[in-house]
Amino acid sequence: MTTVSTELVRTLERLDVEYLFGYPGGRAIELLEALAESTIEVVRPRDEREASVMAEMHGRLHRKPGVLTGQGPWIGSIGAIGQLEARLGSSPMVVLTEASERGEYSTLAPYQQARGDYGGFALPKILDGIAKEWWFPRTAKETLRTTQLAFKHATAGRPGPTAVILDGDAVTAEIPETDEPPTLWPPEEQVRNWESRPTESDVERAGEHLATAERSAIIAGNGVHAAGAYDELEAVAERYEAVVTTSYLGKSTIAETHPLAAGVIGSFGHEGANRAVSEADTLLVVGCRLNPMDTNWGAASFVRPDEQTIIHADIDSRNAGWVYPADVGLIGDAKRGLSALDRAAEAYAPGNDWARERARDARESFRVAECDSDAEPIKPQRAVTAIDGIVDENTLVTADSGNNRFWLLNYLQTPARRTYFGSGGVGGMGWGGPAAVSAAITTDRDVVAVAGDGGFAMTMTCVETAVEYGVAPTFVVLNDTGLGMVRQMDDSIPGVEFHDTDFVRVAEGFGAEGTRVRSPANLDETLATAKAADVPTVVDVRIDPDEEMAEKLQSSFYESVGGLHE
């Protein structure tokens, strides 16, 4: 006989789970107790919010489910931020939580009770609004089976978060040795998924459109990251001589130094990339739903279905042709779809210089005069140029939400694939720091986290987690002592000014190092030293609060529809 909690751990091990992110509490403690003798490393940050971000980043980075655990009331509240990002950003995640049941006391003026009875609250309803799928099993076999299904559905089709709400009695129950029906199958077999691919006729039609186009452009989204379709993306771009632009979440699906790379499209994207999409006669959209920011809020002169041929490749048929009517839909995994397009082009004879010339011109958007400014306070463009100087092919950058991510989007030119990850599913502040710690713990890469002072302060306890787990990411705070994006919308809004927190002392209090930079003269050297340090280092970069992000970065297409919609 063995208990459910012990068998849950065996299931995780058999599914090659290496890390579990969580915080002890409620009946999740039984699961954590069973992990004490496991090879799975438990990463315990300072709260469930940071744990949820770390699990989401793990799923996004490694393309297999990040596992999150903790007590139900907190997983369903502060722990929702990473789950929301996973849902809207298509990151695989499995959440193992509980409903804080108190047995026969659960209906007696209950405390923390989350199963939805009178007097408590309904965790299932919360998770129903976030997760792709969720389960509330009540028996031993149900618990193990639904955990298997959670892993299956987290990666089936478009990835996302799934959840199992562990019943207290079931977690500690013993599993009968007799193989009574229904049969519990081995987890390796139960979680198996099969890849989808577009039909041959759709591939043939799409290939003909691209082969006969005079000006082809690709919009690569997060689906290329999710499928690991980097070689295939470059092969199709080179085969059909197409400019490659990306969505925000698709940034670094291609090295932005590649001869066909044009940068990021959208309302605060690169003007050159936006122009390339507008000028194209044929668009191949891969793994991108085309949200309002991507489309410059529907600017009529940007994407024009009546004048342009649109080929939309997506793993979810609901997404293809969702925002703009598509001439051809390629339904399936981006890797499979792009591979098929590459093979369909074997008879295509290159001979069009438009793409390389257009991409070369578009890449000029990565530099502006402010990137070399010696002004104090430091121009944010200059700060990002310094960050760009320490980012190489082995460095991962995590970007928080707010003005900082748009400065990064424009002036950090990623030198290699899969080097940039940003909060862009739900776009919550406080994401960048914990995401960086997760990446540092689970890879051997150098990691640089970039956030504004507002977002950094929300989750700065992640610096202590980095110290505890012996990793050394660099935390760059673009500090304008305020809620920059909101303040620049309207500085009369209450609450947009922040107390000037001493992040150097905060870092030192956590056992890390900290330094403040006010002048461009020592910015580059300070960042290089911080990145080379063997302990986490916080670099507090004082940027010019009056450098208007929207004024400097909004695209001409976005301006045409009236400006700031954030």
From TrEMBL:
<dbReference type="GO" id="GO:0050660">
    <property type="term" value="F:flavin adenine dinucleotide binding"/>
</dbReference>
<dbReference type="GO" id="GO:0009097">
    <property type="term" value="P:isoleucine biosynthetic process"/>
</dbReference>
<feature type="domain" description="Thiamine pyrophosphate enzyme N-terminal TPP-binding">
    <location>
        <begin position="3"/>
        <end position="110"/>
    </location>
</feature>
<dbReference type="GO" id="GO:0003984">
    <property type="term" value="F:acetolactate synthase activity"/>
</dbReference>
<dbReference type="GO" id="GO:0009099">
    <property type="term" value="P:L-valine biosynthetic process"/>
</dbReference>
<protein>
    <submittedName>
        <fullName>Acetolactate synthase large subunit</fullName>
    </submittedName>
</protein>
<dbReference type="GO" id="GO:0030976">
    <property type="term" value="F:thiamine pyrophosphate binding"/>
</dbReference>
<dbReference type="Pfam" id="PF00205">
    <property type="entry name" value="TPP_enzyme_M"/>
</dbReference>
<dbReference type="InterPro" id="IPR029061">
    <property type="entry name" value="THDP-binding"/>
</dbReference>
<dbReference type="InterPro" id="IPR029035">
    <property type="entry name" value="DHS-like_NAD/FAD-binding_dom"/>
</dbReference>
<dbReference type="InterPro" id="IPR012000">
    <property type="entry name" value="Thiamin_PyroP_enz_cen_dom"/>
</dbReference>
<dbReference type="GO" id="GO:0005948">
    <property type="term" value="C:acetolactate synthase complex"/>
</dbReference>
<dbReference type="InterPro" id="IPR011766">
    <property type="entry name" value="TPP_enzyme_TPP-bd"/>
</dbReference>
<dbReference type="InterPro" id="IPR012001">
    <property type="entry name" value="Thiamin_PyroP_enz_TPP-bd_dom"/>
</dbReference>
<dbReference type="InterPro" id="IPR045229">
    <property type="entry name" value="TPP_enz"/>
</dbReference>
<dbReference type="GO" id="GO:0044272">
    <property type="term" value="P:sulfur compound biosynthetic process"/>
</dbReference>
<dbReference type="Pfam" id="PF02775">
    <property type="entry name" value="TPP_enzyme_C"/>
</dbReference>
<comment type="similarity">
    <text>Belongs to the TPP enzyme family.</text>
</comment>
<keyword id="KW-0786">Thiamine pyrophosphate</keyword>
<feature type="domain" description="Thiamine pyrophosphate enzyme central">
    <location>
        <begin position="203"/>
        <end position="341"/>
    </location>
</feature>
<feature type="domain" description="Thiamine pyrophosphate enzyme TPP-binding">
    <location>
        <begin position="400"/>
        <end position="541"/>
    </location>
</feature>
<dbReference type="Pfam" id="PF02776">
    <property type="entry name" value="TPP_enzyme_N"/>
</dbReference>
<dbReference type="GO" id="GO:0000287">
    <property type="term" value="F:magnesium ion binding"/>
</dbReference>
